[in-house]
Design goal:
Elements lengths: L3 H36 L11 E7 L2 E7 L5 H8 L18 E4 L2 E4 L12 E3 L12 H8 L9 H14 L5 H7 L10 H10 L7
Parallel strand pairs: 1-5
Antiparallel strand pairs: 1-2, 3-4, 3-5
Helix pairs in contact: 3-6
The chain binds FE2/S2 (inorganic) cluster (FES) (2 copies).
Length: 204
């Protein structure tokens, strides 16, 4: 049978255990709190709803309200009425969606619009000067470098990026510069011919 002293001891032990456990719990709470505080030092979380996104496209500011998950291709095609660049594969394989960001070709189907704020974005919609085609667009027409035309905007943008970097590219540089783009109609030789014929492309 338990004595009165035993029961006191049980109460004391119970209290010590309780104090120890609350100490551990307090420490755990403090560590969790610190971890949460550390996590909050990164960039602020946005979304999942629509947020303001400000893009600079062809030298003009485009203000949109879009979800952070929206790609650059979708943002410009669906929300800004710039439908020149096409959606081919939508997974970074065909190049139909190629745009230039700070002069470099990117797959706009695989780039989040929110990630290219503050950068200079160029797409095929802004390439011509009024009724005057860009020299690369003109060369594609002159050399008949398209059939269905679905891949053409992406090829044109990749070619502009290439020619701004190498104004007189070698055949090898052309092949390498355009190796992220696919033409399902098989007009590659005409496309290479068109790009080789372009002279005097200045950095846009
Ligand atoms: S649509 Fe972007 S790579 Fe095919
Ligand atoms: S012209 Fe048809 S896919 Fe290239």
């Amino acid at each position: 049978m338990a004595s009165k002293d035993d029961s006191k001891e049980r109460i004391n032990v119970g209290r010590r255990t309780f104090l120890k456990s609350t100490g551990v719990a307090g420490l755990a709470a403090s560590v969790v709190g610190q971890t949460a505080a550390t996590a909050q030092t990164g960039p602020p979380a946005v979304g999942p709803g629509e947020v303001p996104v400000r893009l600079t496209v062809n030298g003009r500011q485009v203000n949109l309200m879009i979800e952070p998950r929206v790609t650059l291709l979708d943002a410009l095609r669906m929300r800004a009425d710039m439908t020149g660049n096409k959606r081919g594969c939508d997974r970074g394989a065909c190049g139909a969606c190629t745009m230039l960001v700070d002069g470099r070709p990117i797959y706009s189907c695989s780039t989040l619009a929110i990630d290219v704020q503050g950068k200079q974005i160029r797409n095929v919609d802004g390439l011509a000067n009024g009724n005057t085609l860009h020299p690369v667009q003109q060369a594609f027409c002159d050399k008949d470098a398209l059939m269905c035309g679905f891949c053409t905007p992406g090829f044109v943008m990749a070619s502009v990026g290439l020619l701004e970097k190498y104004p007189n590219p070698t055949p090898e540089q052309i092949r390498k510069g355009l190796d992220g783009n696919i033409c399902r109609c098989g007009t590659f030789s005409r496309i290479f011919e068109a790009v080789s014929s372009v002279k005097g492309v200045r950095r846009g």
